[in-house]
């Protein structure tokens, strides 16, 4: 016995310390509390149900398990016994005027105190009350009806009944009743501002905002220094002086150059001047000579009054010099007035000041340009490569470019471009307005462009171009049309007409050869031309009204020049003059221009052509008509179309004009998006098919799917097509019904500013808001779509995408969008940033409401609130769809961002105009109007504080998606570098990828998927992503049946008897056909039935074994991406014994221990327990056993319960502590020290026994002798009593 005690004492004191503590001892130190078990919501696939354990007992007195719903704008406090108390927030009250009510649980139902039957909400209080139908939407905040304003809606806003005023020399950006005006370069208002605002009221009309000047300021030109002596500033640094003053600022009197007093010449003189130039030509009376040779002209300097060159000669006779005589001094000053320049037949020009000249060939020419600020330019462009062909016209105002061209039939087309001679033209309809340029159609072959802001009007047709300049352009223009200064002599530059044409030409665009001025004639040709042209232009009956209203003379001169030009062309070709077709055509072209000008001036319709005089040749099958083709005679036109009598070619009776062909009515073609379709052709319009029938489209009338879009800061487009903006910063219901809801969480932005900078929404009340995340709730399933395409399902991240949960399907529609499809067919796309799209199938049956509207085809009731009323403003409407009524919207108006941050508007406009100017977008303009997308883009870019691409690209994508949905695919990302997207290896960017075929699994399960265009990275055609995320041929994709996947080529049977079908897996789809015979293969013999084995087509993931039958892994659900294999399984009532490979009953399952198998009923025992094998499970009887804690080596530890761990620390550590009574207790402390590279080892152990004055201890240290245990009387007795 003594040896045993000694051995035990030494063992207890060793460095590898072993302490025995009775297992049955209670109340020891470090007793572990029982941890509560948490049951997360279980997410699975295949449509299986989700297990959610319920509460076991009521939480509140009265039988209620949950708190009642918190009333709107209230705080709820509840206790177990006394119920709940609801207290309204500041500025709110209950309907009875109280701010607090009691809510108690009775019979398991929460009930409010009388007089309420249901728990009421707190409503905001406005004192004084809102007037004129206003609604109190917050404490002392009234939402006014349209037409009212003020804190309590007491002020009536009068409606604007006046047309918007024209403000010259300015750009306007307007809403219905307010405009921001920016003066053009070199202009300002009378009070020296370059920007101002105007507004419209019913009483005052349009007036300036905060201006003490005129009711509406004007942008006047700036002249520095100011004009003097009554001079008028008519353009930037250009003064129009009174007749008596000259100089840049009208600072010099004309008397400074009065030849009577300053020339000092004794002969005759003829003087003239323009602006600051004044000169005189000298002459001597007959019989007298100059004293010295005179100069051609003597110029006077107004600043000095001195004529030069000097000396000035005198007139002298044979013996004497005559004194000065009376001289000729004509005055040629003209007051500014509107004037017109005309160009016709591709050869002739009449300038603003009346100069007429003609030429052929040459490059493109500048007809008129702004010579001061270069704000505008009108160019005439040769329409072909012949030297005498007609002109097209290019009008450039600021950054807007219009091109007008006439076809062979005289029809005019208008296209818009961005920048001079660049970009692809975009068709412009007439009438319309393009950046302030108003386009009108005067007749079927004449188009008018009014540029009111610069004072210019263009009238364009095939035969003539007329440019009308207002007096504000006086002396500020240059070009073929002259200087508009009243002096026709300076319209031709000093180096002559050829030099003038060269100066105003674009030498890089010369399709029509060199300029030729050889249009004059003389002798017999001139007499012949004058006789022919005079007779043509003075037809007694037809042109009589024109003689007094149109300047016949310059048309006569042009006619003669063109007549002679045609004679010279015929002469060079035939060797002599001819009065045949060429000369007749020359006369007719000028007469056509003359008649057109006469019709414009006199407003009369002239029927001047006849079979004998200038007959109009018509194509084969057509006949000439003085009134052309009426609307009723054209394909596809209704009788209500505007029609003016205009000469042309028409079809014989019974035929209709189709383009330039005459066809029967049933053969009329149709046009769609600028493309011509023949009779019988079809086009697709959304989900409807349209057939070209007799020149008209006849379409089916099927109900089509609809979509709601939320994008940017944020801009909303409802299911029914209503657009609005709303800047609330809470969570809102986009769509809500009794069964599901779709919510959007809006936070301050731009970009996702709070996401990126960790701002809380409440800290940024003045910022616009963006959608940060989207939540879908459907019959107990919650799906959260987060930033960067992250997904949470019931609060947990799914193991993989795609994923099913209770019929809700989550997948990637492309690399840019994640898609969630609900069992009712509703589909939500989310781009992981700020853009959400809700797709509703055709005739969606659920009764839905929310920010997306109600999808009933009527925009007027889209602002329906949860209470059933229809609000008039977006703020009042959207604020009622908050998910949490206590959230503060912070929707105070802060003005349009482009007005608040006006310095950003230029850049925003430049970027967003790409939707209009870039050729890649232009081909969709006739299908989808880009204007609202440009508006949204400018709004967001002006408020953008994140990366430009974050705010910019979403709007280009929004427009491209709208185009793709209508069949116009725009490959735009390659054209806009900021928005480019790289694709993983093997994938390619597609602007209209298949939303149903992104992955093999999509193809296998999307038999009812509605295909939609989606941009992003997709696999090439006939490929899809496999389970490893690589592009693979569709032929290698598996098929899915009953939530299991089968390899390509797998065959299965379904049905029975006459309806038995054989199905084969081909390209991820089952191809089934009626089976002509019974099942061709009987696999039942492949498995041993006597061994209780059965053959199955698809082996389970985890077969039921003796070991797994008690585990949840015994479920036989198949992983979606694990392909089925056929084989043998155990029959019902049997499980697999994995150790023997046999199918056994449950009570035959063996148990295992120590590498051995034990049959049912076998037992084995240890020192702590005895175990018996029962149906494959050990049943053990527990006995009290000692616990052992061990420390060894480099700080390795094993706890009493068998947990092994390491601690690399060089300190003292409490190894164990325990007690039975206050006196009988112990503790063991181990000291660790460094013992190698990064390691620590125990160096000493301190053992203490007892407590207080009776405590004893013993220390054990490395490399020291062990102490004698008998030195510790209590320690020895403790061990002896407990062990020995």
UniProtKB/TrEMBL annotation:
Answer whether the UniProt record assigns the keyword Protein biosynthesis to this protein.
Answer: no
Signal peptide, first to last residue: 1-24
Q: Which GO terms describe its cellular component?
A: extracellular matrix; extracellular space
Q: What SUPFAM superfamilies has UniProt attached to this entry?
A: EGF/Laminin (SSF57196), FnI-like domain (SSF57603), Serine protease inhibitors (SSF57567)
Enumerate the spans annotated as EGF-like domain. 123-154, 220-251
Q: Which cysteines are joined by disulfide bonds?
A: 126-136, 144-153, 223-233, 241-250
Q: Can you give the residue ranges of the VWFD domain? A: 339-522, 706-888, 1187-1284
Q: Where is this region: Disordered?
A: 26-48
The protein's superkingdom reads Eukaryota
Protein name in the entry: Mucin-2
- What species does this protein belong to? Amphibalanus amphitrite
- The gene name on file is MUC2
